[in-house]
Design brief:
Blueprint (H helix, E strand, L loop, with lengths): L1 H24 L10 H26 L4 H37 L7 H15 L2 E11 L6 E10 L1 H12 L4 E12 L2 E11 L18 H7 L8 E7 L4 E7 L2 E5 L4 E2 L2 E6 L4 E5 L2 E5 L7
Helix pairs in contact: 4-5
């Protein structure tokens, strides 16, 4: 009894579905009765849908390998750019490699060092007072011999000596250099180190620019603030005040204030920066400006 009821229910559902489909298609004429325009519109719609489906399938499946070709093209362009950069750096790399491979350790001794430095000093115009060998040190590539040098001359002559040292086959550089101004020019005291295993390094200088003598410039710029010195700093949370000793006495100043023809630019915990005549100077603890 229950089986028959279920079977009849299924049949009833099929009948209802067929009836609904018939109602939906009711009013549609048969295919052979369609007008030519209607047939053409339906055909074009089907063709467009088929074309869209085929395009989507081609994009997703990539049967022709377009995506792979584009990726390979981008990789080739990147490698081409890297190759051009390497090619542009090739002359510099060749020059650096040639310098590295062509430089052989220079086998020298203290006598040769003294002879070369004496010649360079004579060419630059420096007057040598002392030139004698010093202790050696270092190991392997950093092994060196030392020379003690005391000379008299000008800043231009000192620079000429340093430029001559930069043209030597081995690195010869000052490890200690003291320059004092005397009555007859500069008093120069230096300790030169000679490294046979290292090549010389040329001095850095701007093309067409003459080296300026900083010691002569500082001396020529002397003015009324010569002999000033810092004697005290007073500081709280809001301000900082400096005590500066001048030939006229001790004055109290803050940043931005003037002392005679000079102006205080900056006051720090251990220094005072003053400016006069376009020249900036620094005063330290109990240290006169020179």
């Amino acid at each position: 009894m229950s089986t028959m009821s279920a079977h009849s229910g299924k049949e009833h559902g099929r009948v209802l579905a067929g009836a609904r489909a018939g109602n939906a298609l009711r009013g549609w004429p048969p295919l052979h009765a369609w007008r030519a325009r209607r047939r053409l519109a339906v055909a074009l719609t089907i063709a467009v849908l088929a074309l869209v489906a085929a395009s989507v399938a081609c994009v997703v499946a990539d049967p022709l390998g377009v995506h792979a070709a584009r990726a390979a093209l981008e990789e080739a362009r990147k490698r081409y750019g890297d190759g051009r950069q390497v090619l542009a750096r090739l002359p510099a790399l060749r020059e650096a490699a040639a310098r590295t491979t062509s430089h052989a350790p220079h086998a020298g001794n203290s006598a040769d060092d003294i002879r070369r430095v004496s010649q360079l000093a004579a060419q630059s115009g420096l007057v040598l007072h002392v030139l004698e060998p010093g202790p050696a040190g270092g190991a392997h590539a950093e092994a060196f011999r030392s020379l003690k040098l005391i000379a008299q001359g000008s800043f231009a002559q000192l620079r000429g000596l340093l430029e001559g040292l930069a043209r030597e086959p081995a690195l010869m550089a000052p490890s200690e250099l003291t320059i004092r101004r005397g009555g007859a020019g500069l008093s120069i005291s230096a300790t030169l180190r000679v490294y046979d295993a290292l090549p010389a390094v040329a001095l850095a200088a701007s093309a067409g620019e003459t080296a300026r003598d900083p010691i002569a410039h500082a001396t020529a710029a002397g003015s009324a603030e010569d002999g000033w010195r810092l004697t005290g700093i007073l500081q709280d949370r809001q301000r900082i005040v400096a005590l500066v000793e001048t030939p006229e006495g001790v004055v109290t100043v803050r940043a931005g204030e003037a002392i005679g023809d000079a102006r205080v630019l900056e006051i720090g915990p251990a220094r005072v920066v003053v400016e006069a005549g376009g020249t900036t100077r620094t005063l330290g603890w109990a240290e006169a400006v020179k």
